[in-house]
Design a protein that fits this description.
mainly beta, 7-stranded mixed sheet, 11 strands
């Protein structure tokens, strides 16, 4: 099993930025792909961004150009840099590795 802990969420104004972090247990993190997901009230879980063990990235169309996923394998950390935030980005954000999930961190974009 893996253990994941997200952090960095909070309240931000439209147009602002946040950086989410995901701390993972074990050395297995470095050899597996991971993803950032989000779930807004009344909606299904959505894949936001994905990064492979080799660093290849992909993004949902709704966030492409605004969000950047990255990883630091030496520190077992993954990040989601979120810029130009919109109210539609409001959700609980989760990281995932090997079908295991963290507890999530709340992101609220509001004036």
């Amino acid at each position: 099993q893996v253990q994941l802990v997200e952090s960095g969420g909070g309240l931000v104004q439209p147009g602002g930025s946040l950086r989410l972090s995901c701390a993972a247990s074990g050395s297995i993190f470095s050899i597996n792909a991971m993803g950032w997901y989000r779930q807004a009230p009344g909606k299904e879980r959505e894949l936001v961004a994905r990064i492979t063990s080799g660093g290849s990235t992909s993004y949902a169309d709704s966030v492409k150009g605004r969000f950047t996923i990255s990883r630091d394998n030496a520190k077992n950390l993954a990040y989601l840099q979120m810029n130009s935030l919109k109210p539609e980005d409001t959700a609980v954000y989760y990281c995932e590795v090997l079908a295991y999930w963290g507890q999530g961190t709340q992101v609220t974009v509001s004036s």
